[in-house]
Design brief:
CATH architecture of the largest domain: 3-Layer(aba) Sandwich
GO biological process, one term: negative regulation of DNA-templated transcription
Largest sheet: 7 strands, antiparallel
Number of strands: 11
Low-confidence stretches: none
Domain HTH gntR-type: 1-69
CATH superfamily of the largest domain: Chorismate lyase-like
Order of helices and strands: HHHEEEHEHEEHHEEHEEE
Structural class: alpha+beta
GO molecular function, one term: DNA binding
Oligomer: single chain
Number of domains: 2
Keywords: DNA-binding, Transcription, Transcription regulation
Number of helices: 8
Protein name: GntR family transcriptional regulator
Distance between the termini: 38 Å
Strand content: 25-35%
Length: 234
Amino acid sequence: MSHEIEIVDKVISLMASGQYSPHDKLPSENEIADQYKMPRITVRKAYERLGELGYIYKKQGKGSYVKDRHKQIELVLSGDVSFSQKMIEKGYDFRSETIFCKEIKYEKRIHDSLETDEEDKVFKVGRLRYIDRQPIALHISYVAKSVFRDINAVGMDITSMFDYYHSKGYREFFSKPSILSVSFPTKSQRNLLNCTSLIPLLVLESGCSDKKTGTVLEYSRILYRCDCFSYVIP
């Protein structure tokens, strides 16, 4: 184990044990270097990594402090209520921005999830979610043109897929079984979500259907920044 990782593990362990509380000031880089008989550059890199992982923050000229991770956004991972509605109901300064709407090539897994055939056109609509002007999630919805004839024309104007479905007469929804996984962001995802390569993403894949008719409305892939959320699985 490298000395840098050793310091990271030690600080995280002290936080978990309660020795360091949210907003407590951490020992300086020099103090840690002297305590563990390590070069200061090693400690600096360890603190930088702790910051990238969302455990600490810096105050200019004052040092490093423990981040309050209990203030993460609590998110219920269910698909029967829109993400926008969940955030607005919780009182967050929420904003959604549609960043693309484009047709995709045939992908068997996605077409099968939408219960549509290879000849049917499928569009993906991507929306960035912001809380307090900070991008915290990327939502990608895949929809079949056979179900939504105007998706290519109106896709870039959609900020809430549920509102769009309501406008088409679909009122009640149910979710298919969800698949959860964790990945690290690609370069393009890091740019979109304004995060480092060390911030893991929780990836939620699911489907949404109309409760009355059984029509498959979408297959979705949602990438949540793990440092911004705590998760509730109903």
